[in-house]
């Protein structure tokens, strides 16, 4: 989705984030998120699972509170952190220093994602106290509408404000350089999302089956919602719109996939496709440059899905909760809304502080001339595509002899 002159940098930001986050997660991140609570449901013990050493003995056995080996669960949760960090980088496309990004994502993993994951995912069990949102407030978030989607969008908004707008933002066309790859990537993402959502059941059981069906339904109706709005508003249904609508529907169903019926999932995806399509235009009205629409799709879609649980949840689904429209009253709706606001505010403020400090110490932006000429060449000394193949080389490949003296 980025311009060809910065596509390698965008990919490197994801690769770099993956490397840094995995290292930190193994060292202390998993402990911060899933260690015994230090008090108030706010943070886990950072030393409890240091280096995952204590999980090695369980490699051939199973803990009673999990249906899979704990070390596998630890890595699965770590990859949730990886995708969240990678999403944040989308707001900085075309203009960020690679070193500054690596420092930011390292600090962000420990101060933003790990604490929120503790709040949202770490359930109480015998002998273990977990996070406050899931255990005290009663938040329903099956696979990360708050910890992944809202956190990534709020953090992306904070960084977009810290880094500032790209040269030519709002004036120059900044179109995706390869829409066929966008469509291919969206298809791969759709397939992978079944592992993201249904995999959170940690078993091939009825819950996983319901979650998979709801994920398929919401992704499909998200495409339809986005394309309908595009067709009515702009006169065209675009491939980028289809890919974006798909992601919007999948984002919204992520927290709600265990609590909705398939009909509810269809409605959730449809609403998310429409609302997120409208939301991406806010960056032009409000002047923040979110390069790849992380705010409009992930933060807004996460809000739709998280709050939507309080409206569309049915006790017939595995989560066993009734929302407002199923006779459950406004109680769960209030819980969901409060959790969404708290997570959004925390992620935005702390990410802004980290980003500001990194910017002051290192500078987040590349020089303007380097941004214009192409960040791939300046930062990585590489270009994504070679458009200057020698003509003689082409002739040789085709088996044609060059003319005499050529």
From TrEMBL:
One of its GO terms (molecular function) is ammonium channel activity. It is found in: Cell membrane; Membrane. GO terms for cellular component: plasma membrane. Keywords: Ammonia transport, Membrane, Transmembrane, Transmembrane helix, Transport. Its main location: membrane. It comes from the Eukaryota. It is a multi-pass membrane protein. The chain crosses the membrane at residues 65-88, 100-121, 141-164, 176-196, 208-229, 236-254, 260-282, 294-317, 337-358. Residues 1-385 form the Ammonium transporter AmtB-like domain. Belongs to the ammonia transporter channel (TC 1.A.11.2) family. This is Ammonium transporter.
């Amino acid at each position: 989705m980025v311009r060809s002159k910065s596509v390698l940098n965008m990919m490197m930001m994801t690769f770099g984030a993956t490397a840094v986050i995995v290292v930190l997660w193994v060292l202390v991140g998993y402990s911060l998120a899933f260690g015994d609570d230090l008090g108030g449901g706010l943070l886990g013990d950072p030393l409890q699972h240091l280096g995952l050493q204590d999980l090695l003995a369980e490699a051939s056995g199973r803990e009673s509170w999990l249906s899979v080996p704990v070390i596998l669960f630890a890595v699965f949760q770590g990859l949730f952190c990886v995708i969240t960090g990678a999403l944040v980088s989308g707001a900085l496309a075309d203009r960020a220093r690679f070193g500054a990004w690596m420092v930011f994502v390292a600090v962000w993993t420990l101060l933003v994602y790990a604490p929120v994951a503790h709040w949202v995912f770490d359930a109480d069990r015998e002998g273990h106290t977990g996070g406050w949102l899931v255990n005290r407030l009663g938040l329903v978030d099956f696979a990360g509408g708050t910890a992944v989607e809202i956190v990534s969008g709020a953090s992306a908004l904070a960084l977009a404000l810290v880094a500032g707008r790209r040269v030519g933002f709002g004036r120059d066309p900044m179109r995706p350089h390869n829409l066929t790859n966008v469509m291919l990537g969206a298809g791969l993402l759709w397939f992978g999302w079944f592992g993201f959502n249904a995999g959170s059941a940690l078993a091939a059981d009825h819950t996983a089956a319901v979650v998979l069906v709801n994920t398929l339904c919401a992704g499909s109706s998200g495409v339809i919602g986005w394309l309908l709005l595009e067709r009515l508003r702009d006169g065209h249904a675009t491939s980028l719109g289809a890919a974006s609508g798909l992601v919007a529907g999948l984002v919204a169903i992520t927290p709600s996939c265990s609590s909705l019926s398939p009909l509810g999932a269809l409605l959730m995806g449809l609403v998310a496709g429409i609302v997120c399509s409208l939301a991406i235009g806010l960056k032009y009205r409000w002047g923040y440059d979110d390069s790849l629409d992380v705010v409009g799709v992930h933060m807004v879609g996460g809000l739709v899905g998280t709050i939507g649980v309080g409206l569309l949840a049915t006790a017939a689904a595995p989560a066993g909760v009734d929302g407002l429209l199923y006779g459950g009253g406004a109680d769960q709706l209030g819980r969901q809304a409060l959790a969404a606001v708290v997570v959004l505010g925390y992620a935005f403020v702390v990410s802004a502080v980290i980003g500001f400090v990194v910017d002051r110490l290192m500078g987040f932006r590349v020089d303007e001339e380097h941004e214009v000429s192409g960040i791939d060449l300046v930062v990585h000394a590489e270009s994504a595509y070679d458009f200057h193949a020698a003509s003689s080389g082409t002739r040789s490949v085709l088996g044609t002899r060059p003319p005499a003296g050529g």
